[in-house]
Write a structure and sequence with these properties.
Helix 1 runs antiparallel to helix 2. A hairpin with a 2-residue loop joins strand 17 and strand 18. The longest helix is centred in the first third of the chain and has 46 residues. The strands form six sheets. A five-stranded mixed β-sheet has the order 2-9-8-4-6, with no helix packed on it. The protein has a five-stranded mixed β-sheet with strand order 11-18-17-13-15, with no helix packed on it. By secondary structure, the protein is an alpha+beta fold. Helix content is 18%, strand content 42%. It is elongated and about 145 Å long. The protein has two helices and 23 strands. The N and C termini lie far apart (137 Å).
Length: 415
Amino acid sequence: MSLEELEQDLYERSDRDVRRRGRQQEESANKPKFSGKQGIRGGWGAEIGPMPAERIIQEEKVGRYWIKILRRWLPTAAAVIFVVAAVVGGYYIYTALFSRGVNISLDLPEEEVRLGAPFTVEAAVENVSGTAIQDVRVSLSLPEGVVFARAASGQKILTRDIGTVGDGSITKEAFELIAVGQPQTISRITGAAFYKTGSLGSEFKAEETADLALGNPVVKIDIAAPRKVFSGERFDLEINYQNATEKAVGPVKIELDYPDGFNFISSSEAMGGVKHNLLAVEESPAGELKTFTVTGTIVGPADSFFSVGGRVIANIYGTDYVISEQMASVSIQPSPLALSIHLNDDTLTAARPGDTLSYVLFYENNTSVGLEDVIITARLSGAMYDFGSLTGNGSFNSARRMITWNAANNRTLTL
């Protein structure tokens, strides 16, 4: 019997069963019903009669309709779900199979690399996948403190096209780098290989990381400065720079950062720049240590601090890189002789012609030892002074408009 004949037979049997149940319910509904009490319940107490046969037949038809729909479309839906699952699963299996056997490795210097000295990192792509790979690209990603030589400033990723790598082949690419970060640190370099294989044209990726040890700079700098100075006092900065390698290095520049309030006076080497803070070194021989001094003054409040910074700038392939930095801190100590000036007991806010101006100078020894041969000077600036009325215990120089106190006219200044 075919599927259609079987379905027709089932429908006919179902119709006969429905008609039979309908007749049985009608017969049951026509029989009188009795309970323990006489009378027929009505209103809310009325019993609900059986479902009409027409409604049963209608519901049976609806059920057969949905059964027919399910029988028609269920095989198609199952087939679609199977195809989708097979495609997705096949793609992942394809990816897992064809992404194996392609590796990338990074060959870094075994020893520490010096800051400012170019070095090479080699990326090798090995294909043992069993088939050729196409459109191969190799990229190198750098951390902070490592830069590409001869590349644009700030470039951190460099990618190169290799093309096709046959099965069982190894292709290598060399990248020239320069370390410019902090000495005695570790930097992590990442290499990646991108490639295609098979007919789907999907791109795969293999990745590898390696750690690079950064050593000391090729030229290091050191700044020696006094720990304490007086405001306005001359002092010297001693700057040492040394080629720490076994070959000549150059050109390099020594750049100094002077603090606010610093006044440059002189230096033992010819310093360039508007602030006299640049020393150009064309070549520094292997192992050479050189020293130069800078003399100046600083004006600032007592008990304050200032810093003097210095850096070595190396020119590599036409680009300047900072490869070494140093800083020295200096404090300004209170002056050994403190001096203050008061006018008319600090009560006068404005002077008029004819007013008497009484200046009092206070000085104090801030050290723990006596000071000898102290000289105090005061200069009178302005056109309204009547120098004929000048009185006091100092000596007056009318040409310079200066009053001087020293041990000759004030014995208290001898100690």
